[in-house]
Amino acid sequence: MRYKILTVDDSKTVRIIVRKAFKTYDCEILEAGNGVEGLALASKENPDLILLDVTMPVMDGVEMLTKLKSDPQLKGIPVMMLTAEGGRDNVLKIAKIGVRDYLVKPFKEDVLIEKAGRIIDLKPLSEAPAKAKSIFDPADILVVEDKPVIIQQIQEGLKHTPWKFHGVSTQGEAIDCCTRTPPDLMLVSLSLPEESAFTLFRLIRTNVKTKYTPVFALVVKTETAQQQQAQTVGFSAIVTKPIDLGELESKMAKAMNLDTSQRYYAIEGDSMIMRLPENCSPGVIAEAATYLKPKFAEAVDAGHNKVVIDIHQIRSLHMGVIKLLFQAMQTCRELAMQFALVANPQIVAECKGFEDTRGWTFYDSLADAKANLGKAPQLAAV
Amino acid sequence: MPAAEQITASLIRDNIARAVGDVFKTMLGREPKLTPVPENSIDKVWPTQSPLAENPRPHVVGTVGFIGDANGLIYLYLDLGFARHCTCHLLGMTEEELNEAGDEVINDAIGELTNMTVGSFKNGLCDAGYPCKLTIPSILHGSNFTIEPISSVTRYIYHFDCGGHRIIADVLMKQDD
Fold this sequence. Notes:
By secondary structure, chain A is an alpha/beta fold.
């Protein structure tokens, strides 16, 4: 939903500053130069928020506010005063007519956005990026944990990723970091003293810059009450200690909406390579399956009609892997792509043990598979 | 309610220093410093020398009044080059864009900076027990001109150094009738 914000100010400068402040958010800015124009535009456009100055020619802000609040059609529109008129008595008098907030000039654009974000659900325009971020792109991760060893474990365990981990130990430090540069994802330990993890979570969600940032709760496996509380308040995911770093990485990639297809699919030379990792957990299989058809179709569209299905890293065969391989081979046939399989001797031996996979032919290496693709008759998978 | 005569020179000085400081820091990221003034000049009553007597460059002057239990007017003097710089910063414009937009934009931007400064100044007076309201800003352009207030006002002139640029706040406080 695209929100409408009406700024009513006789100063074009202020209207431009307001427009500039909101330009990275998904909203439309409407402008009026005095109370009369403001009321007319409010009736016509029914904005979601009005930013109102006090001292204006023709009709001032107090009169406009009074008329607005006495009009049954318009009285529900939230109004935030944005004015140099800030004496205590004046503020109280205006507040009594009915305003949602009051911002005295001079003002910082950040403060305006923060206050407006408390009234309407402002969404940054970048919520819908033109190009999806991939797992090879850098990301800023903020870890809020009072035990340095946990921060160290996460940093060490995920150092193969391009993600930059920043560790802090208190709620205050976390807020400072978020204010300076909002992170792409946060990990917050529920063991911070005095339930400050939950206070921090509420603050994150009320700040317009971080309200959509994924926040994971870090909690000891046996602390079920805390896990339940975290789920109730809306943490994006629960990560239990001891931390399974592989699972954490996968959850983080998903929460950041990263394109993880490059883990499994790549174009090398004239062929598409489908590569499964050593540990094919159900999560990995599901992730690889999601990308399978679109990636193969993309390859065909780009002129590649050969596929090497490389499972040589897999330690043991299980039904999930077999189903995925069937799906891959079936897709190849549908798209008229040639394919070859690469596996280690253990997997080749295991395949001989299943009726459905007994007839599969494997190559020892990627090079062999590539060299023979197109020469050998197409493999039959029953 | 205290009489307007009781508004002391130090209350005016503190308020204008805070107001100029807040506005230029918040809106422009600058930190103007009140420069020392010669002995006895704070309480000087008109007639006095034009603030532009020693600086013949073109200036833009914003003015906003306040009316109520305290009445007065503040002129904010900026030399044209600095006024243009402030406008560009405030509106996120380049010099070329400002040239295309014309003087109206500079007038409006300096008018708003003055409005914020006088607003902040008079809010201090309101909170000190002198409720008053702002008037609509107006703008003067020119070089080496003199504004001569009527005799029933007390005039206070403050100079600020803002990274090598000079800002002059000319505060005219009307006495009670």
